[in-house]
Every structure is written in structure tokens, then in C-alpha cells.
Design goal:
The protein is α/β, with parallel strands linked by helices and about 325 residues long. The strands form 4 sheets. The chain has a 6-stranded parallel β-sheet with strand order 3-2-1-4-5-7, with helices on both faces. A 3-stranded parallel β-sheet has the order 6-8-12. Helix 5 runs parallel beside helix 6. About 50% of the residues are buried. The mean pLDDT is about 100. The structure holds nicotinamide-adenine-dinucleotide (NAD). Nicotinamide-adenine-dinucleotide (NAD) binds next to helix 1 and strand 9. Pfam families: Epimerase (PF01370).
């Protein structure tokens, strides 16, 4: 039997699907969901839930002791677009929550940690195409600075204290079960909802803004596969590059138009354009493929098919 798992920030875009998948894999009672707010019905009905603030060390420790938690997935964070509006709140949440979980592992109260980083660790001086695992970073957003610092601390805790922390740099994630939480790639989810509702979409990024993206099923499979891998295979203890597909809003609109003839997209870039312009267009994820066997399954057209099928219900 798998030892108990705690997910912090379980009600968000990734946490919801991660919780449901871990519950079906390891048994509902072994996967404790937590967040500062309640989640959707599927999440709340499927197993144990605790209201928990990720910035409160004592409260997390209580839950860890009560359920004899062995692994923590820390999904609570403030995302890129929202973090530009509330820099200090973003920094406090993103860093303090990570220290809390890393320190629990350092104190041997838990034995394994998953913490997600992001393509936002890269910046305007990073090579844009096939961005390598190790390269110039220099992030220019509050969110990116917090993720890069987080990566450095993860590696530090692994080297100095032997903490078994694992991480991937998620690209923009596309899913239908929950809405995204304030990121720069949110357009790639909103567009499907609007295409079905109105047959048109006003995009907040320019037509040719190419970004790395991934369908949620691939992201969840990558996460669980990394956590299941034997420790000695995990050579990167900052965070692994992870690639799925790359496309522009224009290409996404063309993919949708194959199913919804006459679908129209217009472009009104806002402050998120500058964030997107500072990020890579495509990612080289060779170390993740080589070291723990990562391989994506969904391309843009398959994603479009899945999104439209599931959103239609
Ligand atoms: N979604 C993406 O495209 C994407 C891409 C790259 C990285 N990530 C990273 O993955 C992680 C999860 O992202 P997401 O898209 O699910 O985010 P989200 O915003 O959808 O969910 C975050 C959850 O954290 C919760 N939360 C906020 N403050 C909290 C606190 N103090 N205590 C406990 N919970 C709190 C929120 O209520 C929310 O349910 C984050 O670290 C994010 O940076 C996401």
C-alpha cells in the first residue's frame, strides 16, 4: 500500500486533476487534498479534504502528523499574470510555502516533495528556440524570479540536507476540468470555452506568439512518473525542462476551425504580451527523456479534439 500523500493547493487547475489521478491510483483515503478554499464537487466528494494555509508551517505540520503523510505535492502558488499585480504577496506565498515543505522534509517529517517550476524561469536573454536545460535564465517577472529562486533552494536542500525534492518546469497547461488560475497561457483554455459558446474569441496575446504548451493528461503523467522514478535516476534537483507542443494563437484558432467552421479570433494584446515575449518558444527536454523516460502524447490537434469533446459534455 502507498504511504499517505498530501496535496497543498489541491483545488487549482493542476491540483484538482492530480488529486483525482492519485486517488484512483493509490486509493482515496491515502490522498489528502488541501487548499485555502474548497474545490469543485468532483474533488470534494472523492476523498479527505483539509482547509490549510500553505504559508502556515505549524498548520501543515499538524496535518502531516495527523495523517502520517509521507509525500507532499506543493501546488499552491500565485501565477504569472496575477503576481505582476501583487508582487510582494506572490513572493511571500511562493517562497514561504516552499520553505515550509522543504523544512518538513529536512526535519524528516516527510520523505519526498514535488514542487513545480515553470518556463517562466527563463527570460528575454535566454535562447528562445529549443531552450536547453542549463542556459542563461534572468527571468523578468515576479513569478519567474520566485520560481528560479525556488529551483536554487530545491537543489540546495537536496545537496546540503539530502531532501528528496523533484520538480518539472511546466509549460502552459491546457485542461477542461478546472479553469486556469491567472497565468499568461490562460488564453489556450479560454479559447475553447468561447469557441463553443460564441464561435469567436478575443485573444490577449498576438497572433504569432509561440509558446511551449502541454495537455493536462501529459502533465499529470509526467508528474507522477517523476515521483515514481527511483531516486538515483533523478539527476536534476533544481527542475527538469518538460516539453509537449509549441504553437501560436493563430495555429490554435486554425486547429479549432477544423471542428467549428467559421470560428473567428481577434487579437488585443494586453500586459501579458510582454510576459509571453520574455519566455521561450520551444523547450529542449532531453534530460527528462533520458533520465526518467519522459515522452509527451498529445499534439495540438489531439488536444483540440479532447477539449471540444469534453467541454461539449
Ligand atoms: N497551470 C499552468 O499552466 C502552470 C504552468 C507552469 C507552472 N505551474 C505551477 O503549478 C502549480 C499549480 O498551478 P495551477 O495552475 O494549478 O494554479 P491555480 O492558481 O489554478 O491553483 C493554485 C491553488 O493554490 C491555492 N492557494 C493559494 N494560496 C494558498 C495558500 N496560502 N494556501 C493553500 N492553498 C493556496 C489556490 O486556492 C488554488 O486552488 C503552481 O506552482 C504553478 O506555478 C502552473
Amino acid at each position: 500500500m502507498h504511504k499517505p500523500i498530501l496535496i497543498i493547493g489541491a483545488c487549482g487547475q493542476i491540483g484538482t486533476e492530480l488529486t483525482l489521478e492519485l486517488r484512483s491510483k493509490y486509493g482515496a483515503e491515502n490522498v489528502i487534498a488541501s487548499d485555502i478554499r474548497e474545490g469543485n464537487e468532483a474533488l470534494m466528494q472523492s476523498g479527505p479534504f483539509e482547509l490549510l494555509d500553505a504559508t502556515n508551517y505549524a498548520a501543515i505540520e499538524d496535518v502531516v502528523m495527523h495523517y502520517e503523510i509521507d509525500e507532499v505535492y506543493l501546488m499552491a502558488a500565485m501565477l504569472s499574470a496575477t503576481a505582476e499585480k501583487f508582487p510582494m504577496r506572490a513572493w511571500n506565498l511562493n517562497m514561504n510555502s516552499l520553505f515550509n515543505v522543504l523544512n518538513l522534509a529536512k526535519e524528516k517529517k516527510i520523505s519526498k516533495v514535488f514542487w513545480p517550476s515553470s518556463i517562466a524561469v527563463f527570460g528575454p536573454n535566454t535562447p528562445k528556440n529549443d531552450t536547453p536545460q542549463s542556459t542563461i535564465m534572468e527571468p523578468s517577472t515576479v513569478y519567474g524570479i520566485s520560481k528560479q529562486s525556488g529551483e536554487r533552494w530545491c537543489e540546495y536542500y537536496h545537496k546540503k540536507y539530502g531532501v528528496d525534492v523533484r520538480s518539472v518546469r511546466y509549460p502552459g497547461l491546457i485542461s477542461w476540468k478546472t479553469m486556469p488560475g491567472g497565468g499568461t497561457t490562460d488564453y489556450a483554455v479560454e479559447i475553447y470555452h468561447e469557441a463553443l459558446k460564441k464561435g469567436e474569441y478575443e485573444c490577449f496575446l498576438d497572433s504569432d506568439t509561440e509558446l511551449p504548451m502541454m495537455y493536462m493528461d501529459d502533465a499529470i503523467r509526467a508528474t507522477i512518473s517523476l515521483m515514481d522514478s527511483p531516486s538515483e535516476k533523478i539527476k536534476v534537483r533544481s527542475s527538469y525542462n518538460l516539453a509537449g507542443m509549441n504553437f501560436t494563437p493563430k495555429q490554435m484558432a486554425e486547429s479549432i476551425a477544423k471542428h467549428i467552421p467559421g470560428f473567428e479570433i481577434s487579437y488585443t494584446p494586453d500586459f501579458r504580451q510582454e510576459i509571453a515575449d520574455s519566455w521561450p518558444s520551444s523547450i529542449d527536454d532531453a534530460p527528462a527523456r533520458k533520465e526518467w523516460g519522459w515522452e509527451p502524447r498529445f499534439d495540438l490537434d489531439q488536444t483540440t479534439q479532447e477539449m471540444l469533446k469534453n467541454l461539449k459534455g
